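Priority: medium. Attachment 1 of 2:
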């Protein structure tokens, strides 16, 4: 694939926002090249804590400059800082590793709402800021390479879909798309990006939705949890309990005060009412809750989206017991949609479940265990993004970049074959 300059914008709705905007995009596949590869192009990133900044402090090449939105608005001047050898530090922003440093050029664009920051850099450099922010850099190289390919594919797919055109952008740097720049580039993750340069996962010559998540509850899910009428052919629900060794995901129950749930239900309906019951109506083939009814004294309503359901049962302010026994504070989302409910009317809603994340696509924890067991990153990706799977024969047709590789028998299938032989 070839393309001209694009831009990524960062804005303020979340903690940080990235946008990839591409112009004059076209693609061409060559028969002699086994894997579709995308070249490096410039992309622009909008940096934010809210969409716009009232003030921005920039440091580079031994200089530190403070820009006020009001002054730039009066001057109607866009400040452009060219790429610096050691990067450009935005001291007025804070990330996990402190004030973030960006490679490529930086633009400060005045607007009546504040200053918009735009960072332009190569797509491959962008990925060096995504991979360590999305997967622990301590993971095995093959797992990091699988993550790099997923991240590149996901970014390219989002660029094509243009979901954020109202902001002249394609993605942001939050979990709504891919986290970027929260952790500085690490040697291991940079190596993984470079080793897989330009590689994306395709089906019939088109980039797939290369979803990934932290830890499985024993089996992966499909995009039906987000309302898809039919699961994408490459997003099969596959078992990975054999590799389910991560510590993330609740093992012990989470108890959310009844009053908290009742207030959320009232806010959802925008009126005072009394919570009476919550009923799970449907689960997908992997067991994730996809539909539930919240019953109130005067009315009731349904929640039919995985994200919406996890948000409704936010354990914020509650304690979560991880599988390794450690306790953490709950966040704005329930760890996963793989759960069971127990109603203690008037007291609490008890939630017992497993896994961490939406459960669709590649399990990062499982990918790392597979890598430790000697699996190549392509095989890891082939497993989680299968085109076809034949349970009867225990064989998988391996597809990667539109090319079918050799067939494989997975570890538990060997055990299945042994059991079958004994049965005979």
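Attachment 2 of 2:
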């Amino acid at each position: 694939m070839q393309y001209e300059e694009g831009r990524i914008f960062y804005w303020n709705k979340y903690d940080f926002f990235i946008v990839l905007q591409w112009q004059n995009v076209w693609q061409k596949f060559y028969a002699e090249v086994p894997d579709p590869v995308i070249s490096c192009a410039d992309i622009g990133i909008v940096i934010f804590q809210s969409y716009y900044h009232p003030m921005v402090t920039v440091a580079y090449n031994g200089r530190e400059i403070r820009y006020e939105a009001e002054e730039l608005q009066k001057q109607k001047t866009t400040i452009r800082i060219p790429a610096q050898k050691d990067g450009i530090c935005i001291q007025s922003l804070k990330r996990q590793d402190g004030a973030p440093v960006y490679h490529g050029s930086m633009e400060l664009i005045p607007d009546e709402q504040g200053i918009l920051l735009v960072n332009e850099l190569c797509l491959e450099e962008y990925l060096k800021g995504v991979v360590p922010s999305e997967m622990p850099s301590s993971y095995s190289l093959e797992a990091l390479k699988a993550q790099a390919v997923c991240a590149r594919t996901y970014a390219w797919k989002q660029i094509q879909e243009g979901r954020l055109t109202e902001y002249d952008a394609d993605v942001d740097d939050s979990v709504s798309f891919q986290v970027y720049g929260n952790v500085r580039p690490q040697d291991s993750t940079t190596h993984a990006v470079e080793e897989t340069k330009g590689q994306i996962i395709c089906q019939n010559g088109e980039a797939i939705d290369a979803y990934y998540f932290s830890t499985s509850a024993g089996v992966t899910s499909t995009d039906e949890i987000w309302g898809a009428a039919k699961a994408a052919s490459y997003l099969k629900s596959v078992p990975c309990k054999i590799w389910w060794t991560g510590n993330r995901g609740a093992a012990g129950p989470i108890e959310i005060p009844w009053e908290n749930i009742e207030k959320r239900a009232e806010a959802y309906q925008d009126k005072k009412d009394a919570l009476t019951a919550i009923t799970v109506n449907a689960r997908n083939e992997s067991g994730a809750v996809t539909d539930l009814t919240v019953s109130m004294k005067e009315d009731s309503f349904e929640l039919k989206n995985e994200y919406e359901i996890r948000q409704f049962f936010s354990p914020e302010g509650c304690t979560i017991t991880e599988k390794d026994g450690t306790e953490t504070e709950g966040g704005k989302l329930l760890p996963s949609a793989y759960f069971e409910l127990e109603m203690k009317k008037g007291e609490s809603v008890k939630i017992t479940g497993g896994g961490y994340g939406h459960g669709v696509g590649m399990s990062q924890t499982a990918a790392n265990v597979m890598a430790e067991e000697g699996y190549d990153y392509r095989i890891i990706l082939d497993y989680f993004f299968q085109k076809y799977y034949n349970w009867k024969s225990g064989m998988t047709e391996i597809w990667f970049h539109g090319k079918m590789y050799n067939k494989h028998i997975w570890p538990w299938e060997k055990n299945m074959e042994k059991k079958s032989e004994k049965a005979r």
